[in-house]
Amino acid sequence: MAERAGRRGLDWGHLALVLLIAGVVGLYLHDAIQASPTTDNLILILPAALLALGLCALIAIGILRGRAARGDDAPLGRAPALMALFALYIITLPVVGFDVGSAVFVIAALLVEGERRPVQLLVVPAVFAVLATLSFRALVPYPIPTLLL
Amino acid sequence: MIDLAALSGAFGLLFASYNPWLLMIPGLAIGLVFGCVPGLQTSMAMAVFLPTTLFMDFTSAMFFLTAIFTGGMFGGGVSAIMMNIPGTSSAVATAFDGFPMARNGQHGEALGIALAASCIGTAIGYVVLLVLIKPLSGLVLAMGPTEMFMVALWGLTLIASLRGSQMARGILAGVFGLLLGTVGMSSNGVLRGTMGVDFLIDGIAVVPAMIGMFAASELFAMSQRGYLVQDSGQRTVRFSRVLAGMGMALRRPVTLLRGSILGVVVGAVPGIGSSVSNLVSYADARRRDPEPESFGTGNPTGVVAAESANSSSEGGSMVSLFALGLPGGGGTAVLLAAFAMHNVTGGPRFLTDNADLVYTIILANIAQAVLLLGVGLVLLQALTLIVRVRLALLVPCVFVLAAFGSFGLTGDMQGPYTLLVFAGIGWLFKRYDYSIPAAVIGLLLGRMTEGELLRSYQITGGDISMVLDRPITLVLMALLVLSIVLPPLLARRRASRKAAA
Fold first, then answer.
1. A149 C-beta neighbours (distance < 10 Å), count
2. Model-level pTM?
């Protein structure tokens, strides 16, 4: 495994993820101590955070020494594009509403997947978005933000 | 243990009119549909349909609402198997082996196992309730924070057994989830980790987070595969294969029985029962199996253990409702509201004054378990059309449903935002081999573990010897230690015997 990692260089993505986890845990621990440095407040957070930071250090050392098993080396494919579309969909929901937003998101995702047939590309997502909006509106006891429906 | 006079009165009430029976089938169907749409919770279905029970008599209302409850417990497993998204938090463990079975083209068998295990689990859960409601209610009253903490700890031990191939990463994922589960206002009123975001004061919305992690971990990576089931010949759900799956469940009677009993006992613990019972049962089945490493890759025993326990936990959750008038979760809270709507007062006297009514509801639920078999077999054909939809269309549609559902859960944009953030985390975790089930379990149990640990600490004043006065805690602790220590010892003994032979 060390040979494999050495040949391909450092697994930067994995290292970044470990640092991100350590950063979030460290920040949370700092915030919790600031909020109240008592046993009552830190009874679970302190030992759990220390364990998490210790594990982060262990994994990071493994990555730096090239000993950690690499993550999924499969090509990323369209996953990052779909993730980005999904993020855009969620962030714009309060503006474009669930009806229009959902239809546009499904159409965009189908485009990314290479769908070009007009019925599949336009009609199916629109019908799905209308049905989903109407059924959830009937079932969910809160008003759902929409643009057209 | 059974009040025979009340029981015979219950049979009289049960068959007094056929009207309440007519409500069971629609109730089961509603529960099934709500349970299998990611984000729609069974308790939400019960709340939505609660007003319709105003026009029913009390028995009919109970039959209808508990039918939704029973249907929902199975429905949660359907989406866990077909989409890797547990429809409810009590179906988390069903996804561990159910979804790998579906990917291997065994979705028919997996659904058959889930259906049989759910029906049998529900029936056993209510039979146990019928016999043991009085002693169990005493047990629930004796449950203090130290006992609740032990139950939570039992659920958490699953993190270690679900660590995946990378132990340090698996445990880190679990501990990270546990920490995220404690974000927000603590049980002693301290605000931590919200970073000024108002949404987080009540903590991270656990169900949208769970949906995001499970969904993103598999679905984004799968969208280029064409169909959920690769082999076109297997893209139909043949009745014979569902029946074969049911046979697979029946061939594991010990797992079924053990899961059902664990489910009803753990399910009786107020607040946490149904979410933990399926995990405890799954962990137990995994520890006892001669090939524990096959769990998570599509082992039918895992599905049997999880589904039998989550279904029987419904019976367990009724203990505190019937005996104490206390709801242990969302579903039983709606039932308590239905009590109030029909001028029935729940509470410790309810069980003694209305034993015949309680037995009627219990008997009706045993009948529902049989009806679920029929309703499930009919509806499964429609629900499993999913395998015939191309993933290019199915994946974005599932995410849209998850966005709707998470909005419905929180009533504002907190749900969809949580879904998005945890979808990102889930995708990264999957890519770098961090166990997502471990992270989800940590997240589910974090807040509760901290609360019970804190209360235990406050009550004992940090003096551990006080735990010695609590026999239930000691029994739970002994069982926990045994369940962790015994299986590896037995496995080693088996291996050395084999080597000697």
1. 13
2. 0.81
